[in-house]
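Ticket reopened. Same input as before:
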Amino acid sequence: MNRKIIISAGHGGNDPGAVANGYTERDLAIEFRELLVKELLLLGVKPLIDDNKNALKQTLAWLTGKYSFKDILLDIHWNAASSKARGTEVIVPDNASIFENNFAKNILNVFVSNGFVNRGVKPESQTARKRLGWMRPPAENILIEMGFITNLLDINLYQNLKYKLAKELAFDIYKSLI
Ligand SMILES: [Zn+2]
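Engineering reply: fixed in the latest deploy. New output:
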């Protein structure tokens, strides 16, 4: 393997992230990360994962010294807005590398081909917060907003397809590492 991958479930510990429709972003992100890790292990990829109790600040501290510039740092989140907004978006740093852009497009395509609305690959400056801590470590940085926790169609799509999504995403990651 030419690169390694570190996967973080967004939020964690006392930071639940968004809460809607009886779901908590932190718990959805942890669940999907675990499904993804399981699929990656089946492909012979051993991702590095942090403690589920870590919020972003602790995760960033934990990351120190664990990656090189070509490793993939993937953070999993759910979006929140009005109940009508839906779809997947994948965030990259401003001035993203070719690798980051291609990897983000592949990830997005897994969700879009499974019925999620395409909200595109976006540089961090086009997000609500403009600057994201996850984009600061010098590596290949990617953040997925899988869908909207506030939208029942997205939630239902995820519940119906989460095993398939994890399998397909794991295969894309596997191909990106070799
Ligand atoms: Zn989040």
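The longest strand covers residues 140-148. Helices lie at 25-42, 56-63, 98-112, 152-177. Please confirm and we'll close it.
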